[in-house]
């Protein structure tokens, strides 16, 4: 993937949707950056060095901008989107309604769509013990949220207006996974159309072609699952 050690931007991350949203925005902005792959399954994010120097919250993505004096690290994915969009004056509308619609849908993704989709995946795929109530709860809520998104996209190419905004960078990496849930592609045709619209953008297409070539491993050991899902400190 994109790695430029001479860049003034450094991104710590992995292959998760929350990291992808930042990488897509960096690609659309045409910015070079050094990418540091964090070994999440083996607990690198919980090391004292990582918590002190990268993210006190032991999460990725984290972005360092060395164009500023003494450098500056921004954590949390949508916070990074806001930072980059504000710095480069792109992907946030200038009018008040468009601006705050963009903020709403960006926060909607980070507060409800991402957490519920993530929990649906965890309890369906990764949990050692299947909990039917949790599976039902998070599957139903994720389904409801995709219904909300499907209605929002009726007659729209993008989530806010006719142009891509940071709301799309936030939502798209999660929305594209709708095709993995049996029957949901048929239920949410506007979301499927939206995925195709965003995917057709040259920067997105180029990134996803590179992304597809990366090795993927979700066969985690119990110890690795503990680092990923059950860490208490």
TrEMBL record:
CDD domains recorded: GST_C_Ure2p_like
Designated name of the protein: Glutathione S-transferase
Tree of life domain: Eukaryota
Pfam families tied to this protein: GST_C, GST_N
Family per similarity comment: Belongs to the GST superfamily.
Span of domain GST C-terminal: 95-218
InterPro entries: Glutathione-S-Trfase_C-like, Glutathione-S-Trfase_C_sf, Glutathione_S-Trfase, Glutathione_S-Trfase_N, GST_C, Thioredoxin-like_sf
Lineage: Eukaryota, Amoebozoa, Evosea, Eumycetozoa, Dictyostelia
Organism, as annotated: Cavenderia fasciculata (Slime mold)
Domain GST N-terminal: from-to ranges: 6-92
PROSITE patterns: GST_CTER, GST_NTER
